[in-house]
């Protein structure tokens, strides 16, 4: 049940002077104390933030092309852009209540009275306006919440963009790595077949047994059996890349490229506080929390009376020709105060709901901050250790190659048995594959660091002009 009290328009002017009583949202701090620096020693170096086109530092023209395609056709990016437009529309809808509503109308009607003996025609031309005075800040806080939610959607879109870019880079590197593994595996197969040819010659000469031949034939078969799965992995990764760039798999081709031509660009974080200013997900959590604070203020303001002003004026006449004469004019002014007396706790429930949602978003804001710091720490450790691992794997592969060359020469000379050669072969095959895998892990660690640092995103890029 609501009650409405009519007030004289002039008497309402006193209420306008009290608009300073409007309920305003209170800022909510995260309550976290940021560390003075990152734990990893590399983070203590001067900050080196990623460029907007950070992927160009890998020296991969094909990756540059794929990133351009993703920026134009990626489904996730298109969905995020549509959500931004939706949020902007919601903000405009919420902001409309801050201004008066004005309507105009024209009417012509004909009536018959007195048993059909009398007919009258009337003409009306009117303009009316109504305005809910935002005495307690309900409309302002509602509009602010919608505006902040729209801002959060922009930060979410930036996060989607960065995530898509990282996925494209990782998938591209996975394709290159698998192709390199396929090449290495084919070399392994060639080496195994070369040894098989030597053993066959030795069997023919009577210096090797049928068992020696069967063992090497097994090695050849095992190496050959690994080729189909690698080709399958390459094809499926290209299909996954097609989904990322928003094109049918049949239209996507990845030109050949070698891992050896790739560079790992450098990047280093600054202070933790500087990092948080570059992470769109942290900005999104902060904007969502601010929107929730405005929602709480709006819910509290809804508990108080609403004040409405209305005005109407125009012309009314029984004769169309005299419609615009001064004597046909009419106007009216009105003001009203409405207060809900009983709603079974619905409005108070909305206040409690808004507060609970705000408390949830405080926790999410803290989570976003801690997750950002943890991402950078993880990425720094991963890049440092994968770099060291790649160096060690390269040295191990080099030594395994030398050992294999010596073993093959000694086998031809008949100075070693097949068991020694088989062990040397297996060591070489494993070392080659591990080196390729270590290279991929280092590239992915570099991509992870760029993503953790917010890519090349800047806060101003997500704000509306």
TrEMBL record:
Q: How does it sit in the membrane?
A: Lipid-anchor
Q: Which GO terms describe its cellular component?
A: plasma membrane
Q: What is its main location?
A: membrane
Q: Per its UniProt record, what Pfam families does this chain match? A: OEP
Signal sequence coordinates: 1-22
| Keyword terms | Lipoprotein, Membrane, Palmitate, Signal, Transmembrane, Transmembrane beta strand
Q: Where in the cell is it found?
A: Cell membrane
- The keyword Coiled coil is annotated on this UniProt entry: no
A single Gene Ontology molecular function, please? efflux transmembrane transporter activity
- What protein family is recorded? Belongs to the outer membrane factor (OMF) (TC 1.B.17) family.
| Cross-referenced PANTHER family | BLR4455 PROTEIN (PTHR30203:SF33), OUTER MEMBRANE CATION EFFLUX PROTEIN (PTHR30203)
Q: What is this protein called?
A: Efflux transporter outer membrane subunit
Provide the organism lineage as a comma list.
Bacteria, Pseudomonadati, Pseudomonadota, Alphaproteobacteria, Acetobacterales
